[in-house]
Amino acid sequence: MRSSRILWSAAVLASAVLGGGCVTPLLESLEEPLIFRPRVIDAREARALIHPNQIEEVRVATPDGVTLHGWLKRPDKWHPGERHRLIIVYGGVGQEVSEVVPLAHAAGPWGWLMINYRGFGLSGGSPSERAVLGDAKRIYDWAASRPDVDRANIVVLGRSLGSYVAIAVAAGRKVRAAILATPFDSAAALGEEHFHWLPLPFARLMQSRYNPGLMAPQVSAPALFVLAEKDDVTPVKNGLALAKRWGGVATTVLLPGLGHSGIERHEAYWESIDEFLSTLDDPATLAMTPSAAALSTDR
């Protein structure tokens, strides 16, 4: 089962690094196969997604010589020369983001930017926590500098592992909002729950790694937490724990009957995002403070 493989990989990673007593070098060497699990695509598949005036193939260069590859999808009624709002998508474990390009949609002037992590799709390099978090902020800066993007209205959307990446961007940059789909409060919490029998405590390694809960209180932007009822990878309770730590207005949506994988194929997922985006310009929402916001679970 995929969820078990992911959690088992995290456990093996923790045991190997702690047992070896050498955290950073060994951890980064194991992150690619055990945490990120990259998937590549053929260049022809990438080109097939391009659509004149709607979907643009994009590349972002990094200071260390890596080129990141992805797609910019325009709003349905966009015209050249106009600025549009933008949602930047950060994928989950093993998620090659070309699969999201044809699915992503929202009412209003929202575009979508989907760029693969290092080692995924046509992006070069190898992924690690350090490299991916740095790249994510660089992608935000690249998007915000474009003349066709409304930089005051950039939303970050993270899926699973990508929720951690999105929170890191929201903590380091000014975002309009965050959308966190199947998120988790910390890798340590997940590891202790699923692999409490490990001889060396998982939390010793992971308490400062892959820990979105540490950054969540720093973010004042509003956030939507999309939780899947039958999620056995990042369970609902871990998503709720993260929402409780959020520094801004937090809203939760529960998708009934769905598990961790494939929620993008369900219209309820996109409807929840669309509904959240529609509230961002509501004066009542803008006037809310974190203490005044009620944490609600819909659907």
Task: Give a short overview.
This protein is of the alpha/beta class and 299 residues long.
Strand order of the largest sheet: 1-2-4-3-5-6-7-8-9
- Quick one: overall form? globular
N-C termini distance: 27 Å
Estimated structural class? alpha/beta
Low-pLDDT parts are: 16-23, 197-202, 288-299
CATH architecture: 3-Layer(aba) Sandwich
Q: What amount of the residues lies in strands? A: 15-25%
The CATH C-level class name:
Alpha Beta
The number of distinct structural domains comes to 1
SSE topology string: HHHEEEEHEHEHHHEHEHHE
Mean pLDDT: 86
Q: Radius of gyration, rounded?
A: 18 Å
**What's the CATH superfamily, by name?**
Alpha/Beta hydrolase fold, catalytic domain
- Oligomerization: single chain
Helicity, as a percent range: 25-40%
Strand element count: 9
CATH domain fold name: Rossmann fold
Number of distinct helices = 11
- Largest sheet properties: 9 strands, mixed
3D architecture notes:
With 299 residues, the protein is of the alpha/beta class. The chain has a single domain, classed as Rossmann fold, CATH 3.40.50.1820. It is built from 11 helices and 9 strands. It has helices at 2-20, 24-36, 43-48, 129-144, 161-172, 187-194, 202-206, 212-215, 236-245, 267-279, 283-287; strands at residues 55-61, 67-73, 84-90, 110-115, 149-159, 177-181, 223-228, 250-255, 297-298. It has a 9-stranded mixed β-sheet with strand order 1-2-4-3-5-6-7-8-9, sandwiched between helices. Helix 9 (236-245) links the parallel strand 7 (223-228) and strand 8 (250-255). Helix 1 runs antiparallel to helix 2 (24-36) and helix 4 crosses helix 5 (161-172). The longest helix is centred in the first third of the chain and has 19 residues, at 2-20. The chain is globular, with a radius of gyration of 18 Å. The two termini are 27 Å apart.
